[in-house]
Model the fold of this input.
Amino acid sequence: MDITYIGEWTWAASLGRLFLAVAFAAGLMSTIGYVFAVHQPTQRWMKMGRWAFRIHAASIFGASVLLYLLIFCHRYEFQYIWKHLNDAMPLGFMVSSFWGGQEGGFLIWMSWMLILALLFLRRDPGRLEAPVMAIHGGVLTGLSSMLLGLYFGDFQFGLDPFLLLREAPQNAGLPWTFNGNYLNLIPQFADGQGLNPLLQNYWMVIHPPTLFLGFASTLMPFAMAVAGLWLGDHKTWMRKAITWAFFGVAILGAGILMGGAWAYEALSFGGFWAWDPVENSSLVPWLVLVAGAHLLLINQNKPGTAVTATYLMVGLSFLLVVYSTFLTKSGILGDTSVHSFVDSGILPQLLAFLLGNCILFSVLFLPAGQERNAFALIQLLLAVGIALGQPAICILLMLVLMTGAILRGHLKHLPKPDKESPLWTREFWMFVGGMLMFASAVHITFQTSLPVLNHFLAPFSGLFDQLFQSTGWPLARKLAAHDLAPGTDFDATYHAVQVPLAFLFISITAFAQFLRYRIDSEKGLFIKLLRSLITAAVMTSVFLLAYDFASWEAPRVALLFACLWSASANADYVFQVLKGQWNFAGASLSHIGFALVIFGAVLSTAKKDIISANRFGDLAMLNESLSNEEDLLLLQGDTIAMGPYYVCYRERRQDGIHAKFAVDYFRTVPEAYTKGEVVARDGFLFQCITDHTASPDFTSDLESNWTFLPMPNERQQREAKAWSAGKPGPFAFTLDPRIQLNEQMGNAPEPDTKRYWNRDLYTHIKWGRVSDPDADEEGWMDGRKHDMMRRDSLVIGKSILALDSISAVTRPQKPGYGLLDKDIAVAAHFRLSGNGPDTTFTALYIVRDSLLIPDMVTLQERGVKLRIDGFRPAEATFETVIWENLSIRRDFIVMQAIVFPQINLLWLGCLIMTAGALMAVRERKRMELRRKSKAA
Amino acid sequence: MSRANIVVLLLVAVLMGALLSVFTTNSESVVFARAFAEPGVEFKVSGTLDPDYPVIYDPEVAVAKTRFHMRDKNGEVQEVILQKAKPTGLEQSESIDLYGTVIDGQFIAGEMLMKCPSKYNEQSHSLADATNAP
Done:
């Protein structure tokens, strides 16, 4: 039965799939052609590789353009478009809906790889072309396979970006899919789901493409490293890879920090970095790439130094990108992340791709010939083992074998330096710095990979359990449970290791530039560094004075000092050594930038001040649990002190998809007291004896201005205000922390931040109502139960309800209340004060024939209703239910406010670092061109 | 042995120490029974929100106190106190990790992680209930 679907772009689905199928096939052809071209001098294979690669590239670009066409034409019959786009989205978000899902993510990643590869081909790559492009072919073919969307039985092979909704498995066989006119008949097709509102942020337009470009840029150095191993030429590629590697450093670094900026601006987890697996898995490749790029620099100046380490760093930076793709797209991370991941059904494919790349990289460390063949064969057998259901043990064996292969290559045939470098040379300290960065990366990866490690521990669970039974070793029990998760205390899990490591490698960036390659340059080093050391010491002391540091924070302070030293030493280097030749200052600039990034990150995190925390000593004494609260309850209209401000929650209003809570900030001015005023402090009353302006703290204010009131009268007791040094002064600004109304994912809070040059005031809603609470048609909200004793009081709306006294209803009083003689009744005399004249009223607890007669008291004009449901004579306590009317209700929010000091240094550092790295790349390009023209 | 090798070996040693410390600093993942058997020790307990009981959060009484019932992996249900404002999406969560301690017979959590239905995509995109408009 053939159905003609009216209005559906069936041709686009076919064309898109054709593009992807051709891309896959051509990628495969290109790989084969280039692989054979490596060792065969005939041009035939090379030609085949080149042509197939061009076809592959054209197909991927074609598929991307087609996907954009579908987006701009709002073709909602396509699942991908329907999921990520709707009519309401403006142009910017339409552009970004391309990478709203994994399919588009793969496409843009591949497109960047292709653009970089085409750039590489344009500049006459010589002997490297065949192996480098063979790797590109292999990787791109692997990635295209993720977009094939084929099914073999239940086994899914790739995700098809051009899938029509009626073909989606979850819709298979539904009646409407057989209706040729379904697009016009079913209203759901008129509009799409739209990009998740959480992602509708301008960073979504720029962050993912930058990050994907950064990821893509790790492929070229990787491919060159593999080419080096393949050809047995360990020199040429290292020279050529430097620019590519530093380009990657610049772009990936910028991409990661953009992610931090996005999180800081739009997500309410209270900062820019949360050591989240997603963040970590882009940081780790960057750290390793930085290490690799610096090792390449060493090799340019002293070939044959740390060759194995260079291969490893450059190779791992790409493999870690693939690993992080695997982690974040396979669903294996489970619930360790604030980002949430869904197993998209291509886990086996992703795993095969990851392991394939690892095997390819490690096999080449072995000497060509039998050893490589045997290694490949064993790995293949282990891969079969994985498929047969023993994944943990087989992958573990694979990793052991890979490590063995790399070690063998290192010991056997990779070149060693002719003679060791002296201690005080640039290459030695660059090597140490690189290794330290690698150590930092290993530590982060380990923490992030604990869920993966649990899978590896699972088969040994019984073993560890036995070990625990026999030795009582608690660690064995933990391992047996194979449910390890990173701790929640970042100081213990990350900072304890990362801070000392960062201190070491940042210190190295301070002095390494003053050293020379190959020549012992210890002499005079200290003198050259003296200026920057003094500058750093002075600046550190200034910061020590400005911010309170405890002694346990010594490692932190050391790191801050290292950052300041690195920044000033590198600046000094530009003037002292480079004599201000900015063309060559790229490296120094990016070191300065990096130091500033770390400085800003460490200081703003360590010295963040949660000013919404309740810090009043007397309140903490009343109730200890209050003292650790970091959030502030703000009643609408109340003006209360918060840090250096007075704040007032003014109103809630709906603005598009946001409920905005306007909070006004006022400066604090000193309170003025006049003679005779009575204030309360720590439960005692004091009377003012002179007109004065309050001192900042009570003890000094007390001295000459107040006298203790030992026997206050009732009026004084009632009217005494709490002593306060300040009062709200002039209006300063308004912040609108908001809650995004997100039907799809649940409402999500978004912060609002006041920025100063040296600090940020960052506020977000912890709890708030996005609409008025439920009420009946007369406006009465649900009643609330309160137990009340004599003299108890409650805040109701803008008034205070107090239980003044209790009395038994005597026989003569009963008729007055309309009671029968046999009734037993207790009267509760209430007073409602504030917001209008005091009102007193009486509510009764009535028992007639051992039945409770409800007595409802309604004060319509004050918006309060009250009923007594019970009386406990022993405690003289009434059980009351109180209703509030919407007319008197006061809204409230729970807000957190944090001051992040010096956070702008972080963003400034990011700009400087990226600019510096790009400058260095440009200068190197220029030098290459000059060398070439000289040679010609 | 070259200086570079010494550097590498030193780092390997330091890292091994740091990584091993992961096993000691992490809170152990257990079920309620174990946490209640060892009061005063911090544990991680994973489970799901029990929807049969209400989530109680009354900021006017306590800003940072949320009470709810959680079912652990053995199916045991306990009332727990989270010392934080009610996290957004708690009711929608698919699973919960609580980091806390038993004090006076009450599990009190200082930290909580939730897994919510993906933020990125994929609810049921089925159009099973799509009907033809009249």
Residues 24-115 of chain B form a domain with the OB fold (Dihydrolipoamide Acetyltransferase, E2P) fold (CATH 2.40.50.140). Confidence is low (pLDDT under 50) at residues 119-126, 128-134 of chain B. The first helix of chain B runs from residue 3 to 25.
